[in-house]
Amino acid sequence: MDVPFGLFTRDPASYTELHPLTGIASNLGFVVWIATATICIFSAALLRGRANQEATRYANSGANTTDNRNIANYLLGAGLLTALLAFDDFFLIHDTILPQYLGMDEKVMYALYACLAISGAVIFRTVILKTEYAMLLLAFGFFGLSLCIDMLQETLEPTWGDWRLFLE
């Protein structure tokens, strides 16, 4: 594709001679997304291991060990979805790669993410309803707001300027 290898190995700020803090809000956002995904996936692994130990210990007692498995599955799904969103954001998959290189409308990704989130909420509703889910609802609300701002970039740009990017 006639792209120099250095573009893939060097820091973009040094390659383009931009300020070293260029894109810091976006990069910090990626770090938070990945940290969240890592915590969810790690917690899922711990809970799954605990559930397996309990299942072995209580195999003959009739004790219910499915709660830890259900929570582990929920955390694994949430972690994987969060990681997917993080990588989409970091590599500009729905913004650039899909439309420019694969000829796909970015709305396909929006629909996919909506289906994944709704499916997860339905599949794990019993786990979610046993928790203090107000924070989850708040997160979904902010995520929806972010998607709306992203889809309305051209409309918001004249009045909000670059603040629209920060709010997204």
Highlighted features:
mainly alpha; globular; 77% helix; 168 residues
What is the gist of this entry?
This protein has 168 residues and is an all-alpha fold.
Which structural class is indicated by helix and strand composition? Answer: mainly alpha
**pLDDT averaged over residues:** 88
Quaternary state of the chains: single chain
Major sheet, described briefly?
none
Helix content: over 70%
Explained architecture:
It is a single chain. With 168 residues, the chain is mostly helical. Helix content is 77%, strand content 0%. It has helices at 6-9, 12-16, 24-57, 66-90, 93-101, 107-123, 125-129, 134-151, 153-160, 163-167. Helix 3 runs antiparallel to helix 4 (66-90) and helix 4 packs antiparallel against helix 6. The model has no long low-confidence stretch (mean pLDDT 88).
Q: How is this fold's topology laid out?
A:
Blueprint: H1 6-9, H2 12-16, H3 24-57, H4 66-90, H5 93-101, H6 107-123, H7 125-129, H8 134-151, H9 153-160, H10 163-167
Helix pairs in contact: 3-4, 4-6
